[in-house]
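Changelog note: in this version the structure field was regenerated for every chain. One regenerated record is shown below for reference.
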Amino acid sequence: SYNGCIISLPAKGGGQVRLRVAAKYQHDMPYLELRTEREGGEGDEDGDEG
């Protein structure tokens, strides 16, 4: 299950940036997971090289 929210922001140079905030549990301890996703705009660098 997903307990969280998604915040959408306009990105520099066009497009959108989505900021995902999710509350999760690990070893009975709550923690926040942050994830940013870039959509559209110039320079589609994913940084996933490897």
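Spot check on this record: The two ends are 30 Å apart (CA to CA). Residues 4-39 form one domain.
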